[in-house]
Amino acid sequence: FSSCFSDTGTKPPESGVFGFMINISALLGIITMCIRYLLIEKQNESSHFVRSSCNMFSLCIGLMGCIGMGIVATFQELSVPSVHDIGALVAFGSGVVYITLQSIISYKSCPQWNTYLVCHLRMAISVVSCIAFIPMIVFASQISMTKIDWTPDEKDYTYHLVSAICEWTVAFGFIFFFLTFIRDFQVVSLRISTEIHED
């Protein structure tokens, strides 16, 4: 028995919960990526380890991935499969590019802002995600029908199984990669300044 990521939220009421949680995850992803972007910009002021344009490009790619997640949440697998698949491709494709770019940026900021252990860990997660992403797309494209419940004796079951395993591998890769930001974000403080203008 296997299940693709989107299979968990195809039928109501699960579909509503799935869509809501994916949108919340996309929002949290946007916040995390923006904080990461601002942190790198601040660190770059003194170290100049990466071009600002590269940092901005990485942010834009990451935000594209979050938009893809929103598409996946809105257009469900069985309702509008073509739009759903495009959203999934954008989400996973952009996500893989984002974490790879962030891994490269991490190495450039070493050893002042990151340890080599963290850099190696991020790159390992990126490599595994990239490797899993390719068969995910290849095998998913070989599946000739869109359905939820699969049995081992059905046509395309093997393609579905391999694609599902790869899809979950990439998804968990994103989660574990974001967890590596915890130590970086511990040095971040939010300063809110207010100015009162009196006439």
Automatic annotation (TrEMBL):
It is a multi-pass membrane protein. InterPro entries: CWH43_N, DRAM/TMEM150_Autophagy_Mod. Its main location: membrane. The chain crosses the membrane at residues 20-40, 52-74, 86-107, 119-139, 159-182. GO terms for cellular component: endomembrane system; lysosome. It is found in: Endomembrane system. Belongs to the DRAM/TMEM150 family. This is DNA damage-regulated autophagy modulator protein 1. The lineage of its organism: Eukaryota, Metazoa, Chordata, Craniata, Vertebrata.
